[in-house]
Amino acid sequence: MLGASDLLIMELKNHSYWKNVGLIKKRTSLIKLYLAKQYSKFIPNSKVIAVSGQLGKTTTAVCLQAVLDQKFKTLTSPFTNSATTSLQKLLSFASTLLKSRPGDQKIIVEIGVDEMTGPDNYFELVKPNIIVITEMSSIKDKYGALNEEHFNEYVKLLDPLSNQDLAILNWEDNLARRLGEKTNANVIYFGFDSKNSHVWAGKMKITDFHTVFELNYGVERVEVRSKLLGFHQIYSMLAAASVGLNFGLSLINIKKGLESISPLPNRMQLMPGYNNALILNDTYNGVPLAVEEALDVLNQLPARRRIVVLGEMSSEGDNSEALHRELARRLYKDKVDLVLLGTGDARFVGEELISLGFIQERMLTNLQNPQIVSNLLKILAKGDLVLVKGAPSLRLDEVVKKITRDK
Question: Which of 55, 214, 232, 303 is positioned for an S-S bond with 385, CB 3.0–4.6 A?
């Protein structure tokens, strides 16, 4: 009779990922997965912490490791970009498991809901007893319509948890609050609401290019000065703090861990730019909520001029035009000084800005990446702050490299 690991390998052999993979690499990967499956049988559930959600998973995993490293030997699978297939992520995690050390006490795994079923199922390797959900509102469209099927995947994610396990959820996200009503696990909420959150942030501000907030738990509090820019990144830090407190870490130790974290590549990464300008590199994704969060940060930082470089937003389907026009209204309201737009549906941003009365000379549209670079090198000056925002497929990170190198 075939075991679960044999069935997993058989299913994986038919996975579309293998089409362009050489025979030796394929066999090596399948062996690796099989061994990881066998090894995982000896990993107690109490070691495993899973992080899921629509935004902030990787940042939360990094924050978790920084906090838990204050007390435990912690293992985290290397993060992969959003363009990587879920099977590739699973292979990466299998490699991490096989390289783990005997003394590792906590294992952090980042998963998407599309990686919880079928041949890409992380839970064939590990079964967590703590699951963190970061943010879910982006499974709604701009008009509030909920993708119920997608939401139910999160319900299934929490289903295996018992009343001995933990679900750590974002109180500010109404869908996460709904999840809290559907799980048997003990629920810990984090957020900005001091009345309903178990762990919360207050007195938030951005100063000296740091995000500063008061971390609260009961009557205890401590000020955190983080290099992670933006109030939205506080959610990841609160989630990590919630896990740390569950394992008995003090607020002082949690503060130490959080303040040790540097910005992740292409995620709200502040970089020195050409002609002493500053570049805010947020080229990791282009979903509407992430664009809005990036603009929030741009508006809170000091600058002589605020310049936005924007590619088309990703995966918006029939709502794309409406969402891009809504973004244009936000840019107009924020009184951005200069706007450089890429190709594709980014044209709707330009059209809407013109209809609103935005000065046409302060905007360039339908630009290829080399044109964006050329124009920025002509106009950048000391004190300028440039937000570069777009999905990885647009390769705007290459624009960032060109305008941050020494001249």
Answer: 303
Q: How many domains does the chain have?
A: 2
- The structure tokens listed for 318 are 């029939």
In the three-class reduction of DSSP (H, G, I as helix; E, B as strand; rest coil), residue 308 is classed as strand
Q: Residue 377: give its domain's CATH number.
A: 3.90.190.20
For residue 145, the tally of other CB atoms under 10 A from its CB is: 10
Q: Tell me the angle at which helices 251-259 and 232-246 cross, rounded to the nearest 10 degrees.
A: 140
Token readout for 204 is: 């938030």
Q: Domain range spanning residue 121?
A: 4-259
Please report, as a single letter, which amino acid is at residue 14: N
pLDDT tens digits along 127-161: 888 999 998 776 555 444 556 777 888 888 898 89
The whole-model pTM stands at 0.85
The string of DSSP letters for 316-378 reads: -GGGHHHHHHHHHHHHHHHT-SEEEE-SGGGHHHHHHHHHHT--GGGEE-S--HHHHHHHHHH
User: What does the block give as tokens for 110?
Assistant: 């980042």
Tokens representing 288? 């509407």
